[in-house]
């Protein structure tokens, strides 16, 4: 039973994240409201308003037909123009920044709501136009509905103006990076806050019973609460083998567990059914979402920086801005431990979650930046400033993180000296190494 509940909840989450979800809901509202107004017109609301508040009724048939026809044609034109702008935005973002940023731009909820406003107004105007009686009797004509159509069209024009403003902001690289940064920061802060500050370790899990993946895709998210409930019900301890966001192939182990399944107290009767329940708590997807995986933010911001340093674009300023965002994210990541566990209410570790270590994350980012930016002394200078800031975070700087930073400083120093022959540039590089040594001279050794 739990397995089907998990699947339903996952299906609802996927449905809400679909680009057509909010436009469809708003459009349905417009359609239902159109039929509701037709019903009100059939019981004489326009006739009542003509007698008591004539200013609220459009009682000329030709005027009403002309207005509604114009609204319908205009809304279709606005929708086509808006769609064209979105395509231009996506094409430019893919070409100038990174294809990875496209899901975030497509799923912009404000743009989905605006599309829903357009479509709901269009449907309302169409059905209101159809409801106008051919006799031309002013009491039978939906005069009040036509007035509401004018109001809805005014809202649509306001939404169109806002859309133009929003789309002009969305295409700016600083706006894109800022959104990526804020989503990742929120996710990291949530993980840090939920982390238990106790030293916990699992035994060697290589001989635990594995559960193989029954599908292929990115491991987008795991319902830890549901998995923990199963673990408690069956006296299990569980390890999540892949790192969240990894691409999973069918038939490779995604979970390992240890415990006595025969102690079950619910409807699960054998290992196979238990494994299906556990697999149901894992969400697979063809897309990667920052809200579920903060590592993706490091990838996206790094790719934007690399794209900016390509010969075709040659925009070191954007690369420097990207390093500023990466600096703050790395400083925040230092507050999180490399080992992650999920605890029950009794502070017992039930689930071990494999994560990307700080050293691996820092190396992957720096390996790409060093490869494409080592020739630019301004970018190299900014990277040294980033390392200096990270080494100054003494309140969260443990030995493993410190060693990882020192390794990358040495790598950057080596690549920078090998790619710069100008004496002034070499002097600048050495001066930053001296500054880094002075941060904590007894602990740091930056000799290549």
How do you describe this structure in short?
The protein has 16 helices and eight strands. The chain is α+β, with helices and mostly antiparallel strands and about 450 residues long.
- CA radius of gyration: 30 Å
Global structural class: alpha+beta
Query: What string gives the helices and strands in order?
Result: HHHHHHHHEEHEEEHEHHEEHHHH
User: Approximately how much helix is present in the residues?
Assistant: 55-70%
Low-confidence stretches: 263-268
Silhouette:
flat
Q: What composes the largest sheet?
A: 5 strands, mixed
Describe this protein's structure.
The longest helix has 36 residues, at 61-96. 62% of the residues lie in helices and 8% in strands. Among the domains are: 18-171, no CATH class; 295-335 and 358-439. The strands form two sheets. The protein has a five-stranded mixed β-sheet, with helices on one face. The relative contact order is 0.09. It is of the alpha+beta class and 448 residues long. It has helices at residues 2-17, 21-42, 45-52, 61-96, 102-106, 109-130, 143-170, 173-194, 224-233, 271-280, 295-308, 316-333, 358-373, 377-391, 399-418, 423-439, and strands spanning 209-212, 217-222, 236-240, 247-248, 253-259, 282-285, 340-343, 349-353.
